[in-house]
Amino acid sequence: MQVNNDIKIGIITVSDRASAGVYEDLSGKAIIHTLNEYLISDWTEVYEVIPDEQEVIEQTIIDMVDQQNCCLVVTTGGTGPAKRDVTPEATEAVCDRMMPGFGELMRAESLKYVPTAILSRQTAGLRGGSLIINLPGKPKSIRECLDAVFPAVPYCIDLMNGPYLECNEDVIQPFRPKKK
Fold first, then answer.
1. What is the gyration radius of the CA atoms in the chain, in angstroms?
2. CA 106 → CA 12, 13, 55, 121, 155, distances in Å?
3. Which of 5, 49, 82, 180 sits most deeply, having the most CB atoms within 10 A of its CB?
């Protein structure tokens, strides 16, 4: 376990309209709010609102992982079937390995609320020692999906020798194996 007081988490909102200032980014703020509820550890957000351009998404993820040293990058938006929804493709292009269980669980959770959850293409992957998770674009769906997958996130980061994420267990129950 690496105890680190310099925990950085990347939040990327992928939206043509939010990046152009047509409307306020509520999704990225929902991720920040949720992570503040989950985490007791001090952490710093590295936050970007960018257009639905695969090259821009790839470069933003690479920067957050390779230059900013984010142990976790959470994206929102660009996961549907529309032509400009390319966040999963950008994530796959920059990851060393994919973690398909995250997308599977998020879709299963979302299906409890809307039948269109099968249209979502959320995924997750690893780049170096960082976990990248793609979330849907609606704030309500963000919380539902994070509630489902976040219990595995701190241990995943532990396994990659990342910083120790201490959680508020009254809000979210992280899974870590019992010490023998």
1. 15
2. 18, 18, 25, 10, 18
3. 49
CA distances for 144 relative to 31, 140, 153, angstroms: 11, 7, 15
To the question of domain 7-159 being in CATH 3.30.310.50, the answer is no
Q: Where are the beta strands (DSSP E) in 2-143?
A: 7-14, 43-50, 72-76, 97-98, 124-127, 130-135
Contact 14, 52 (CB under 8 A): yes
Bridge-based pairing of strands 130-135 and 124-127 is antiparallel
Q: pLDDT per residue over 59-117, tens digit each?
A: 999 999 999 999 999 999 999 999 999 999 999 999 999 999 999 999 999 999 999 99
List Cβ neighbours of 123 (8 Å cut-off, separation of 6 or more): 79, 88, 91, 92, 98, 99, 100, 102, 103, 134
**pTM for this prediction:** 0.95
The backbone region for 128, taken as left when phi is positive above 0, alpha when psi lies in -120 to 50, beta otherwise, is left
Assign 116 to helix, strand or coil.
Answer: helix
